[in-house]
UniProtKB/TrEMBL annotation:
GO cellular component annotations of the record: cytoplasm
UniProt entry tagged with the keyword Oxidoreductase: yes
Listed name of the protein: Glycine/D-amino acid oxidase-like deaminating enzyme
All residue ranges annotated as the FAD dependent oxidoreductase domain in the record: 34-381
Amino acid sequence: MIENEQPALAASLWTTKAAPGPEAPALSGEVEADLCIVGGGFAGLSTALHAAEAGLDVVLIEAESLGWGASGRNGGQVLPGLKENPREVEARFGPQGTRMIECAGAAPDLVFDLIERHGISCGAMRAGWISAAMSDGLTAARDRGAQWRALGADVRDLSGPETREMLGGGYYAGALWDRRGGGVQPLSYARGLAGAAASAGVRLYSHTPARRVGHEGQWRIETPSGRVSAQRVALCTNGYSGPLLPELQRNVVPVVSIQIATDRLPRDLTPDILPQRQVVSDTRRQLLYFRRDAEGRFVIGGAGAYGGVGLSRAFRRLEAEALQLFPQLGGLAWQYGWGGRVAVTTDHLPHLAEPAPGLFTAGGFNGRGLAMATMMGRILGRRLAGDAEAEADWPLEPLRPIPLHRFHRLGVRTVIATAGLRDRLRIP
Ligand SMILES: Cc1cc2nc3c(=O)[nH]c(=O)nc-3n(C[C@H](O)[C@H](O)[C@H](O)COP(=O)(O)OP(=O)(O)OC[C@H]3O[C@@H](n4cnc5c(N)ncnc54)[C@H](O)[C@@H]3O)c2cc1C
């Protein structure tokens, strides 16, 4: 079992309704491959698929079931770009930054192409992403929109009344409508990627935690009832990383995010919520994100807590937030509640690393991993297969452990409390 996991958070709307995935038995005995991937979320599955398509013999092992981590639990929002604006990424990385921004901007295209190419049934909708701002966040949002438009992206400014009309409610002062975004049923998408990987020849194993990774002539990954020997290894364990590689575990802070969902909304709800089915997140520090799924349920997420009383309080707070946004939801039951770990990095960027020759890691998607982890998987999978173009897409950086990482829960609680207070007091 994954360290410190709260099992109750794993049962979600998505687990109840997801399409089945491919067969993935537990590994028993010894197997060999060119590449062993540890972790069966979007990053691991996309790496596996793209490496296999590029000709590598690939084995993927997952500690629980495929898509069990953040990938099967998220909001299903397919978002372009990174947490940081194009200008900041380019200022830090120069021409390499331009390439990173191109990859991040194109990530939703990759997701929807994969869905189409592999016939993945996952309630995909592409009506765009609304990034909604309160009055104190509007100038920054407009500036971000202008930066993306300068790069050719279809991003439109929405006034306050336009935003409220498209949402069917809310209290935002304005928004960006980024037409590249969309929504999917995330667990069905993860299982669909797994199916595509299996068809490309990847051998998938679930209920197979990697217990030790070592190098003896080649990489050897020990599991409870077997072992994988491979030339290269990719650790795609992200916010669920344990002590397998301590510097990877300490490179990200796992922050709990939770969601609640109704059943299908009644047809006569007035005003209707998100009639065109855009996905929405706001730009506050303690942000809310919400959408309707393909069957018309309303799903909303926000800051969680690490367990017990804090978690029940966080669920109640989220219900209250939902009603403040959309009073027309009053009286409807919240049928589902769940959560998972968002892997946050100190520079708000995903990290690709090679801490030892042939041992790669990818993670830290900062709540933007549906599209970006899929894209990073393509970059990593092709890179591992020797594609020089992919090598130039994203820089390798050393894994830098975050100081005082073991106190991260206390730090996160303080940051969440301060962020909420600053949002309420409108302190920039
Ligand atoms: C509640 C929530 C809402 C979110 N909403 C959105 C959203 O709407 N849009 C968006 O873009 N992003 C969202 N995110 C973020 C997104 O889900 C992640 O960025 C993305 O899923 C990361 O994928 P991953 O493959 O890197 O990691 P994960 O999906 O977390 O996969 C890691 C896997 O590694 C496995 N593992 C760990 N240790 C081992 C081991 N030793 N051996 C074998 N396997 C191991 C775990 O079991 C896990 O399945 C959200 C995240 C959460 C938690």
